[in-house]
Write a structure and sequence with these properties.
The protein is an all-beta fold. It contains 2 helices and 31 strands. It holds the Pfam family Bact_surface_Ig-like.
Length: about 450
């Protein structure tokens, strides 16, 4: 069998004409396979026409999408057998499926008698997906709310797939652990943000991104809002009821304020009320505080009772009766003592004092003429006044009168005390108190 390839000539009637010249003895069977440049064609038997002719293989080039992996496709473009009733089959080599790229395939068609024909074509499988076919879906809510200082940020993450359902790796930004290596973002230079701070109010954005094999990018953002809706708590330092002695200094132990979000707010506590430690009474102190979100704590109160249980303080003032004329002199309690009160700052000893007795260390009328031979040297003339005689025994060491009294403050607290009035022997020599042994008392 000799095969001649080439182009024929078209005659005036439009027929393709070519010449064949036999070179060997015997009968030749001539067949012409006429095809166009596009690959289509037909076989025409000339003379003598064989009893069985091979099939006609027709091919076409294919372009296929390969988004989801290897694909199958046939280049057969209507191959046939010119003999009526004859059966044939076509085999494509390689048979596929075909991965992304350009593949040259051969189509061979063979009839029942074993006669065959073939043709070639290309199968182009495109790579990747198209924009919009890759998806990224957030796991959980797209807007999450966390309680400041209470809740913990646990990133629910996201899921991304390509058009074929294949999972894609997700890159996270500002999640707190973007590269998911277990190292917090504040300590990991490979992370792009520290993530939501559950100890500080604010709105945080966590971004998720995935890229498919054709560099299509899909992303989503989750808004995480950290709110503070819980009020601070106040705790009294010390008891809720306190008693203070009037006149003492009162130091308020105050309160401690804590907030789950803002921490220690003790310095921001507002106190209302005041304790007057020198004025008897019951005082109420109230404490309140708010956090940065204007959540007010339940206020607390403290009751402070200022009570007066101490009597006045007495300071004696020595009195000297001179010259010793033997006359009765008026002596007021305020002449020989003064009083003060820690609660009231002052005390009117003349108004609040009471003489209880007056003693003399010399007898009222000693034997002889040294003391003037007088009687009634001590006379109580009022609650806080007396007449005292300016007389003494000239041969003694001077005369000392002792005034005993009680002074009360306005709360009724009493102080017992005494003061002295002296009649010296001479102006330059103070009298010496010999006690009550040689004297007397009134009453």
């Amino acid at each position: 069998m000799h095969t001649l390839a080439g182009f024929g000539n078209t005659d005036a009637s439009g027929q393709n004409v070519f010449c064949y010249e036999g070179t060997l003895a015997g009968a030749d069977t001539i067949a012409a396979s006429v095809g166009s440049l596009s690959g289509t064609g037909a076989r025409t038997w000339l003379a003598p026409e064989p009893t069985n002719r091979p099939p006609v293989a027709l091919c076409q080039n294919l372009t296929l999408g390969g988004a989801c992996g290897p694909v199958s496709g046939s280049v057969n473009q209507g191959s046939y057998d010119p003999d009526e009733g004859d059966t044939f089959s076509c085999v494509q080599t390689p048979s596929g499926p075909y991965t992304p790229g350009v593949h040259t395939v051969t189509l061979t068609c063979t009839d029942a008698a074993g006669l065959s024909a073939s043709c070639q074509a290309t199968i182009t499988v495109e790579r990747g997906t198209t924009l919009g076919e890759t998806t990224l879906v957030l796991n959980g809510e797209s807007h999450m709310q966390l309680q400041c200082g209470v809740d913990v940020w646990n990133d629910p993450g996201a899921t991304a797939t390509d058009m074929c359902g294949n999972p894609l790796a997700i890159r996270k930004f500002n999640s707190g652990d973007d590269d998911m290596d277990g190292i917090p973002g504040s300590q990991d230079p490979d992370d792009y943000g520290p993530g939501p701070n559950t100890s500080a109010e604010g709105t945080y954005s966590v971004q998720y991104m995935a890229i498919d094999s054709k560099w299509n990018v899909v992303s989503a953002i989750r808004q995480v809002t950290v709110d503070d809706t819980l009020p601070p708590t106040l705790t009294l330092n010390g008891p809720a009821e306190m008693t203070v002695a009037c006149g003492n200094t009162f130091v308020d132990p105050s309160v401690t304020a804590n907030d789950l979000c803002y921490g220690d707010l003790s310095a921001a506590v507002v106190k209302q009320g005041r304790v007057q430690p020198h004025t008897v009474g019951t005082y109420t102190l109230s404490y309140s505080v708010r956090d940065g979100s204007y959540n007010w704590a339940t206020p607390l109160t403290r009751t402070v009772v200022v009570e007066d249980k101490q009597g006045p303080v007495v300071e004696p003032k020595p009195v000297t009766l001179w010259p010793a004329t033997g006359e009765l002199r008026t002596v007021l309690l305020s002449d020989c003592a003064k009083a003060s009160d820690v609660c009231e700052y002052w005390a009117d000893i003349q108004a609040q004092g009471t003489l209880t007795s007056i003693t003399s260390d010399e007898p009222e009328d000693a034997a002889g003429d040294e003391d003037g031979n007088t009687k009634n040297d001590i006379l109580l003339t009022g609650k806080a006044s007396a007449l005292i005689r300016a007389e003494r025994n000239t041969s003694g060491n001077g005369r000392v009168y002792t005034l005993y009294f009680t002074v009360k403050d306005r709360a009724g607290n009493a102080t017992r005390s005494s003061c002295k009035v002296q009649v010296p022997v001479s102006e330059q020599a103070p009298a010496e108190d010999d006690g009550l042994g040689g004297g007397y008392s009134v009453p």
